Here is the input.
Amino acid sequence: MTRFKDVLIVGAGSFGSSTVKRLYELGIRVTVVDKNKRRLEEIKDWAVDVLVVDVINKEALEEITRRNFDAAIIAVGSVFSTILLLTVYLRDLGIPFIVGRAANKLQGEILKRIGCNKVIMPEEIVGKDLAESLVLGEAKELELDEKHSIIEFLAVPGWWGKKVGELSFTDKGVVVCAVWRKPKEDNKERQLITSIDKDFTVKEGDSLILLGKNKVLYRLAKS
Here is the structure.
């Protein structure tokens, strides 16, 4: 499940804006910095804070990063030297997870070597997808409509050994559709269990297929 609760976005262009809006919907606290005040005004309702900052000013970034962000997303324009510089700054300032932009695979390899944990190419991934990947991690999602999805979650330790009824999924409006269970023998395929009632016990390694409202499912992902 996600470890990201407070995220810094550097750059408020189209990519940064779409990312901050989706992170807001997913319940993540976002701070956005950009030197363009007009851009920040347009997205201030989706962020806990927006700051007019020259993003390549290391001293200014150092002051901001004292807020102990879990991750930073470099969403500035396509000037690769700026992205490189910001990656080094954020790494040196102790940001534990850095997302950088690359125009091609070579740039991506360079960013990874100097400290980016995740590299994205805007032509391959949009801000919405990046936001969801930060929250859902490895969970698999099938969107049914704008408000509902089916998501496969790997059971977290807090669920192990508990009955479905004890986990209060029904109270949250979430339906356990099925469970994938790993067999004891490593060479065998997972077993799909579809008869799930309140007395069904969740085990370590189980993957639960849950149906519910997106906001509720994303809160579960963050737990």
In short: The chain has a mean pLDDT of 85. The chain has two domains: 6-136, 140-222. Residues 4 and 50 are 19 Å apart (CA to CA).
